[in-house]
């Protein structure tokens, strides 16, 4: 997967969305002045099926930042869905604004009508700043919504299986490095204990790991320490990264693996839930040179999309969890291919995803409902 775009690249390009989104099939700008809705829907590829990806509600500093995020995230969903074995393409949406101030039923329903206008080329779901209840509002205007509440026949909180999948990927990494698929006795640093991170902490504690956490949202840290008094906390991600760790789990926003982080990190495994963790192309080579095993983010964090995709068949948590368990074997396969081909684990994951998009996608072309 080509590296993430940066805001400076967007600015220097003269805001040429066709150039920046050269890989993308479609980018839709949605504007409803009455509700304050400003949204961008990006469809990267529908070669394997309709694009599926969440809607992020976030106070981007500029529209340029929102475009970059939508393009990067939708590309990531194509690779994630392909590697997860789903017959779904990659799409993602962002709504610009602070959800605490701007989110209303009317705005969400207006957004739902824009999604509906794509006639099934894009299925939406939850992401940062949106919830299953929000999906229920969107679904009042739209047929192409997943991640709905259990009361409305949906999968509910997709972070449950996202965390479960990350834990399976972490087990595979532990087996690769230490010979046993367990984190027992290892120190795991979790950066971000929100929706996904808090569930991941539970799996780690149950497996016998020592856990250190941090989060910019202090109440989230407090809640974790009340639930698990044995968990330690530090004041910042910088402090966490500089700690003595066996595993580093970025579970907040993207771009977590920077040159600076790689230089100071003591952990031997990076495996977390955040999307687009590599800050720039080439940083994955630095990770490998330092002897750190990187479990590619879109490989291990696909449990959530597996969970919401299961709604399209009539949701069964047991079936979705069984599919998410397969993330252990998929991660293993990535490591094996990396070793066999002499490439980074990030490159190996890309090769597997691209192979499936190429071989299966040629049978389908651009998705039409």
Automatic annotation (TrEMBL):
Name the record gives this protein: Glu/Leu/Phe/Val dehydrogenase
Active site: 92
Family classification: Belongs to the Glu/Leu/Phe/Val dehydrogenases family.
InterPro entries: Aminoacid_DH-like_N_sf (IPR046346), Glu/Leu/Phe/Val/Trp_DH (IPR006095), Glu/Leu/Phe/Val/Trp_DH_C (IPR006096), Glu/Leu/Phe/Val/Trp_DH_dimer (IPR006097), Glu/Leu/Phe/Val_DH_AS (IPR033524), Glu/Phe/Leu/Val/Trp_DH_bac/arc (IPR016211), NAD(P)-bd_dom_sf (IPR036291)
Residues that hold NAD(+) according to the record: 192-197
Species assigned in the record: Nocardioides alpinus
Gene3D superfamilies according to UniProt: Leucine Dehydrogenase, chain A, domain 1, NAD(P)-binding Rossmann-like Domain
Keywords: NAD, Nucleotide-binding, Oxidoreductase
